[in-house]
Amino acid sequence: MKRIYLIVLAATFISASAILSANAQQATPYQVEYQTPQNYKDFRFSIGGGYAFRLGKVQKTGDSKIDDMNKKLRHGFTVDADAQYFFKEGWGLGLNANYCSASTSGDNITIPGLNQSVNYKETQSFLYVGPSFVGRNESEKFLLVSNFGIGPLFVNSDMNLSGVNINGSKTTIGINAGVAGEYKVNSKTGVGLKLSYVMGTIDNMNVEGQNYKSEEKISVSNLMATLFISFRSW
Predict the structure, then answer these.
(1) Which tens digits make up the pLDDT trace of 108-157?
(2) Residue 233: in which H helix or E strand, if any?
(3) Cα distance between residue 118 and residue 162, in whole Å
(4) What angle do CA 38, 39, 43 make, to 5 degrees?
(5) How far apart, in whole angstroms, are the C-alpha atoms of residue 190 and residue 135?
(6) By C-alpha distance, which of 181, 124, 126, 179 is closest to 151?
(7) Residue 127's closest CA among 220, 229, 227, 219?
(8) pTM assigned to the model
């Protein structure tokens, strides 16, 4: 009798195993076919600050004091921000804004066209805001983001001549490109380094309501290196 029970139990176990195996084989194609596709619609926002280097040649006047002041205007600081939306795993669209500023000053400076020496201060600033095409490539711990865009570039120059304020401004078209390498601190936050530039030129500037035209085009381009923190939705 025990032998019969053992045979029946073994047969039941074998039959059950066969049924479970068949069901598993049938379920696998179904799961693969109806599996929910990966959603790559993601947001990313980053903000940072760092160093800006003015591109183009330094304007030379023949006056060593003025030339030294112009050289100081090549070095400044920048603030950079990105807002991006990814439609696919590898690309998306975004909005980039960056601000660059540099200052210089000197005492007893003879400005061309003036017959007296003045204490001179000047701050030049550049604001770019524009849409961009964005690409991304990532691993478990690192993210690489690149961007390219075209938008308005607002140029401003605030000058002070012995207490007299003079303002100059100009708007032109800027071309913006950059690449950012990011380390993922956690699932939503990262830190990294971004290298970028904004390229543009002007040939005139509006100073106190009057238009002053330059003999040649002046570069208002900047090369920027920024440290940033980012926030991701994925």
Answers:
(1) 888 777 777 899 999 999 999 999 999 999 999 999 999 999 999 999 99
(2) none
(3) 5
(4) 145
(5) 17
(6) 126
(7) 220
(8) 0.80
